[in-house]
Write a structure and sequence with these properties.
Layout lengths: L6 H10 L7 E4 L4 E3 L15 H7 L6 E4 L5 H8 L4 E5 L2 H10 L4 E3 L12 E6 L10 H14 E12 L7 H12 L6 E8 L2 E2 L3 E4 L3 H8 L4 E8 L4 E8 L14
Parallel strand pairs: 3-4, 3-6, 4-5, 6-7
Antiparallel strand pairs: 1-2, 1-8, 7-12, 8-9, 8-10, 11-12
Amino acid sequence: MPISNDAFGQALYDYLRGSADREVIERDDGYVDTSDGPQVYFRPYRSWPRHEREALRLARGRVLDVGCGAGRHALHLQQKGVPVVAIDASPLAVRVCRLRGVTDARVMNVTGVSAALGPVDTVLLMGNNFGLVRNPTTARWLLQRLYTITSGGARIIAETMDPYTTKRQAHLDYHKRNRARGRMPGQVRIRVRYMKHKTPWFDYLFVSRDELRAIVHGTGWRVARLIDSDGPVYVAVLEKDGYDGRSARGSHRV
């Protein structure tokens, strides 16, 4: 990714160096909003929401942190002695991770995951990063890919947001627009802007609990547990169909 397109990573890198502003999120219907700011990606464990802390305690074995951002999840796991590989499509985000002490951070898109990463026991898709699956077709393909490259007792810990909890008319209109185009209501097409930087347009997927179960069905995974937050965000813990509950290889609990 050229630096001019790495809006997200530039915001993180500027924040690390002591000065940054919020990113702007632009949707393809013209709706514009701002993020909570890059400081969110640097928050220490004690200030994480309850559901996030609960979810990270379920990580075990060797962890793949997908969409690692500034590396807060990877760093927490490292401090607990958990082996972790952190990946992000943003080169500057990966640079930030390395500068902060993440020992194995790589520039990689989620669709680039393969057995070359080595054995994986837990896949993290935190920070609403289930959305990186883009659409239901790619989601099923990716889940099947993850099934083949992970250990027998592997689990996926994925955070997302139920899009139907909103009452904002602009979002309800967007859901209707998506349905008319044959897309899932929570499938958004967005780009991130920061200062003079802007990412290409990309799809991001938000799903309800029932929609998540429908996507997961037939991929080799099942929804083993849901962890609710105080709002529309929730975490789904996926385990392999037929898994007998024995500990994963080299289990670490955090």
